[in-house]
């Protein structure tokens, strides 16, 4: 989390939307083998983030019963001083990120199935057109793949967001930054700058 309180947010709905919209994050934990990270799809419900890892992942055997950190990264981008009224400054980076910390428990087989079906349903629904169904996977293949992963749930005890969107700049500079971001292919970050930190 950025140390400047200007870049924090208590807007829980916004933070939950970030998790839902991005749908992917990183899980970090200390293990006897050293710090490890895993990249995984996420689902958030009722103060809990669920995810699954490959059984052979370096974190899988150490997570249950431990405290871990989940991060979700939103849009980000380089901010050029060329977009400022006063160019006598330095570049920076604007970004949206969220850290979630809490204890982790392992999911049983039924809960893991529910997580997988929820992930499939959410992401197939976003694609449009004819949806794929998990029922199209042969049962033997599903069982084999299911045996190769482990599900987890992190109970969120701490929320640490960073919403750094040039809040220290004037409204005119912020609009110029948003225009520069759009022109450089960072429309999502520009949109957030105009709507969140306005």
TrEMBL record:
Coiled coil: none annotated. It holds the Pfam family FMN_bind_2. SUPFAM superfamilies: FMN-binding split barrel. It comes from the Bacteria. InterPro entries: Split_barrel_FMN-bd (IPR012349), TR_PAI2-type (IPR007396). This is FMN-binding negative transcriptional regulator. It comes from Tsuneonella aeria. The lineage of its organism: Bacteria, Pseudomonadati, Pseudomonadota, Alphaproteobacteria, Sphingomonadales.
């Amino acid at each position: 989390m950025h140390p400047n309180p200007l870049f924090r947010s208590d807007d829980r709905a916004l933070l939950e939307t970030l998790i839902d919209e991005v749908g992917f994050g990183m899980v970090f934990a200390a293990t006897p083998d050293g710090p490890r990270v895993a990249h995984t799809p996420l689902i958030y419900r009722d103060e809990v983030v669920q995810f699954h890892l490959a059984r052979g992942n370096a974190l899988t055997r150490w997570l249950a019963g431990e405290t871990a950190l989940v991060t979700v990264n939103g849009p980000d981008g380089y901010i050029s001083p060329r977009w400022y009224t006063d160019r006598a400054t330095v570049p920076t980076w604007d970004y949206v990120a969220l850290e979630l910390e809490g204890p982790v428990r392992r999911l049983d087989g039924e809960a893991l199935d529910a997580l997988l079906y929820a992930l499939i349903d959410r992401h197939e629904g976003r694609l449009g057109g004819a949806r794929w169904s998990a029922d199209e996977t042969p049962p033997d293949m599903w069982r084999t793949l299911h045996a190769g992963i482990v599900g987890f749930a992190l109970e969120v005890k701490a929320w640490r967001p960073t919403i750094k969107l040039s809040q220290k700049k004037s409204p005119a500079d912020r609009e110029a930054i948003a225009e520069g971001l759009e022109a450089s292919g960072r429309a999502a970050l520009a949109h957030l700058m105009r709507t969140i930190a306005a």
